[in-house]
Amino acid sequence: xxxxxxxxxxxxxxxxGARPDLVVLHYTAMHDTRAALARLSAPExxxxxxxxxxxxxxxxxxxxxxxxxxxAGAGRWGGCDDVNSRSIGIELANPGGTPFPAPQMRALEVxxxxxxxxxxxxxxxxxxxxxxxxxxxxxxGPRFDWRRLALQGLSVxxxxxxxxxxxxxxxxxxxxxxLARFGYDPDLSxxxxxxxxxxxxxxSGRGPLTAGEAAMAEELAARWPVDxxxxxx
Length: 233
Known about the structure:
By secondary structure, the protein is α/β, with parallel strands linked by helices. It has eight helices and eight strands; from the N terminus they run βββαβββαβαβααααα. The strands form two sheets. It has a six-stranded mixed beta sheet with strand order 1-5-4-7-3-8, sandwiched between helices. It has a two-stranded antiparallel sheet with strand order 2-6.
């Protein structure tokens, strides 16, 4: 893969000697790649990412992987509250409401596979901005194809949960505890967690929590529980 250098000054050392063991995916919410590159490289905006992928599949390197890019902001995943120091940030040039083109997805898949192999990052540690900052961020959004990544071992996806028994209404408290085992912040409200879960795993979900959604969450926590003993967690 050809990677185009486009250095950004918006970076610094990873705190406490942290090493990246997460990948956080974003969309730029801007009208084109040129505008996104300008913003991610402008000192006054104090924002950056390690990589930016354009709709045509070109990959730009903005911040060296050994450095801390400023892409995640406030939030938490699996007990880690300095996600910037523990992650690689990848921006996808997309305004936020449109599908992600095939060349862009293919480039992302190649980049992810390389990062995950070199950095020994398991698929459950590839997350969205919306996962670590629920209620504040929604990217990469409901149009992003997480299932496609999971089929290639580049992220995770639960069984549908469609056949789950619905004899009783699922317990919101149990749902919150289950999502915390997967990695979501346990201090967030039930409504915020449900919205974040649906955004990634069930974008068509509406109304009260369903038995199928509860079953999906249970599978995520059972198959891919977060390791809260990781350094920095």
